[in-house]
């Protein structure tokens, strides 16, 4: 392989990078991907996908212990934890090699190595790749997309130690099921792990500095999530201040202060899920006009950095840290490079999902944020208890909440908790993206019986009354 | 494929009408939205707009033909270069399903105008805009055709409308039609109808005007007395306006001087048996004339209740065609704007319209010859000289003054 000249070089092969390369190939640009570890990035290897495989297993475990309500009796359901973890890894592997296959089919060369910016030659930028076999190669292209992603934030005292303290990485490949687990941070990642381990049988304590779990979600949703988790036997401490971890050779003790009251708990493992930091190091950003703000590359709305011809997308470019945001930015950025007309991303149209039990999904403004932004709002709520399908499924706990602009009928936000909501939120995302108003949503005919009918009912509730509640 | 254009129904009850005029000739190119013909009944005139595009292949019904049954093919639209059928395929009243090339658009007692919700108002060009963008534009009174879309495939989205809104009308138009120092506001269908009908009225009807000052004090006193008799609330409550009373006064006068309740046609002067008063109501971007039918026979309270309902629905664009088409005489009241006098343009095919200005305190000579202060308004009757002569007009205005100044006639 001799070609080192391209139209576009993509550094990083996650959902940002590999999608950028696939789109560029579709648009007949010559493009190469540089990937230091594994195609598919965090998402396929250590993020979205393996966690979903695990959460599926824990959901099955929950159902196995809840079969009575459906009339089944199964004696002593058991699982092999190693196989549960093994399946999750196999799923990741299958998808990662799927990405390799897609890139091959699109004739996109992949350079296995660590890439960095290495100056300019004529009108081209150079990317130096330290290949895995120790050699190095210099690639050239007028356009470079940086998509190096992010990694877990490490707080002092909570460093992963290979034994007691885990980041999401270790939490995805444990040797055994911890009996007592402390999860620090109730964002999407922390909550998903708390849910997985609790539903597999661990005693889980979830601590959060903010005054509620899933703090970016609407307050109503946080409240219902907390109630549901506590019903499952999870211990939840919000507004919590964590003391230093005291490790013995068998376990860990920590003092937690909530509202002036202190309590000490002993656990076998600790998962630290306190956010992520961008992979900005050793990228050759020094001496360029590329600006880094708190570990993230600063870009404009079209993902351009301060340096002409260099772009940053995905987790590297900042919040929201979501795979679909990375992929969408990838497509937009490549299309702009190819000279197509593109539309900048509006973060209030990016859905966010947390795959805990019950699931949580949302898009747009929470009620509080809408009010803070100066909107006069109309809010509708519909609980799953009024939904036939939810009851038939044995999933009567859930809520759909919609927030409309009272003046224009714009759907400002939608917030859901309950079974299948992560599969349903797209309906509201389409409504928001297509700028539908309450009128079109009211006129939309939803299939019966589906849990999605509660999305319709919530809209009706905001405008004069739900039919089934 | 040849598409037949059918005689449209002006109202649900219309069975036939007169094909008054062709506005396009055989062989002429037609774009969808073009006005191709005018249809008349005894009560109203309506334009026929093309829904499809093509070439006007053949006219089956010549202009001036009376008694054309609804759904009769009146012409055929063909594609360019396509053979033109000799005669219409369908028998009258048998509407082939593809015969939908014409739509009744603007029913119109002019001077006043068509209703925005008239069927199939089709501007010919479809505007692509998100529902939210449409709603915000409507609320802000912005015309979407003047806004540039930046969404997918040039679709107009919220952002574009908000930009246009904050930029103001001049800015919104700048990209569409910068014409020297002016700003072009494209005509709405209603505005076009108003323009055409009023020009036609003013250029074909020989107008003349008769003004008379009318003292209102007695009428105002009666109004106070009558309103005091209304129950506080409940279904029987009413609140008469001066306008309600003047509508009735005009109706009573028309009953007395029947020669003004007429229409001029080439063959005859048609005297209406009923007194149906068209009342001008201003609505966004124009005006419309809902009708108080048989106003001379209705009580003041009936007129008041009906007028309130009609005006409210007129502003909401919710009038039915038969509620604003027809009428035998018009009243236009600009008193609320404080004008001291004005004259109005006749609403064809009617022959007269009464313009009512504001009641003002003015010096008056009382019955005993002494000077006093009274509430006086100037009313001006515009008349079609082809049907009504000066003496008759003067007789009418005098009778009107008598009725208003001796308003007891309105309640007996
Ligand atoms: C546990 C967990 C669960 C998650 N669940 C979800 C979820 O359910 N839904 C969701 O939308 N998001 C989820 N996320 C977030 C999601 O994984 C990220 O938003 C997404 O992976 C970001 O994509 P990216 O392409 O920007 O970066 P990454 O996926 O991080 O990919 C970056 C790639 O670049 C490579 N790289 C880094 N530096 C270099 C270099 N210098 N040279 C060459 N290669 C380099 C890395 O090896 C990596 O493969 C989850 C994250 C975690 C940790």
From TrEMBL, chain A:
| Chief location bin | cytoplasm
Q: Where does NAD(+) bind?
A: 185-192, 208, 275
**Residue span(s) of domain FAD/NAD(P)-binding:** 6-330
GO MF annotations, alphabetized: dihydrolipoyl dehydrogenase (NADH) activity; flavin adenine dinucleotide binding
Q: Which Pfam family, an example, fits this chain?
A: Pyr_redox_2
Active site positions: 448 (proton acceptor)
Q: How is the cofactor bound?
A: Binds 1 FAD per subunit.
Q: Does the keyword Cell inner membrane apply?
A: no
Write out the catalysed reaction.
Answer: N(6)-[(R)-dihydrolipoyl]-L-lysyl-[protein] + NAD(+) = N(6)-[(R)-lipoyl]-L-lysyl-[protein] + NADH + H(+)
GO BP terms: namely:
2-oxoglutarate metabolic process
Regarding protein family, the annotation reads:
Belongs to the class-I pyridine nucleotide-disulfide oxidoreductase family.
**Additional information:** The active site is a redox-active disulfide bond.
Family matches, as NCBIfam families = lipoamide_DH
Q: What is this protein's record name?
A: Dihydrolipoyl dehydrogenase
Name its species: Acetobacter estunensis
TrEMBL record, chain B:
Positions of the UniProt region annotated as Disordered = 85-106
The answer to whether UniProt assigns keyword Electron transport to this entry is no
Q: Give every Peripheral subunit-binding (PSBD) domain span.
A: 128-165
Keywords recorded for this protein, A-Z: Acyltransferase, Lipoyl, Pyruvate, Transferase
Q: What's the superkingdom here?
A: Bacteria
> One Pfam family this chain carries?
E3_binding
One MF term in GO for this entry? dihydrolipoyllysine-residue acetyltransferase activity
GO cellular component: a single term: pyruvate dehydrogenase complex
Location of the Lipoyl-binding domain: 2-78
Q: What class of enzyme is it?
A: transferase
Q: Which cofactor does it need?
A: (R)-lipoate
Catalyses which reaction? Answer: N(6)-[(R)-dihydrolipoyl]-L-lysyl-[protein] + acetyl-CoA = N(6)-[(R)-S(8)-acetyldihydrolipoyl]-L-lysyl-[protein] + CoA
- Coiled-coil spans in chain: none
Q: Mark out the compositionally biased spans (Polar residues).
A: 88-100
Q: From its record, what is one biological process in GO terms?
A: pyruvate decarboxylation to acetyl-CoA
Q: How is the cofactor bound?
A: Binds 1 lipoyl cofactor covalently.
* PANTHER family, sorted: DIHYDROLIPOAMIDE ACETYL/SUCCINYL-TRANSFERASE-RELATED (PTHR23151), DIHYDROLIPOYLLYSINE-RESIDUE ACETYLTRANSFERASE COMPONENT OF PYRUVATE DEHYDROGENASE COMPLEX, MITOCHONDRIAL-RELATED (PTHR23151:SF90)
| Protein family according to the UniProt entry | Belongs to the 2-oxoacid dehydrogenase family.
Q: What does this protein do?
A: The pyruvate dehydrogenase complex catalyzes the overall conversion of pyruvate to acetyl-CoA and CO(2). It contains multiple copies of three enzymatic components: pyruvate dehydrogenase (E1), dihydrolipoamide acetyltransferase (E2) and lipoamide dehydrogenase (E3).
Q: How does it assemble?
A: Forms a 24-polypeptide structural core with octahedral symmetry.
**Protein name (database record):** Acetyltransferase component of pyruvate dehydrogenase complex
- The record lists the organism as Acetobacter estunensis
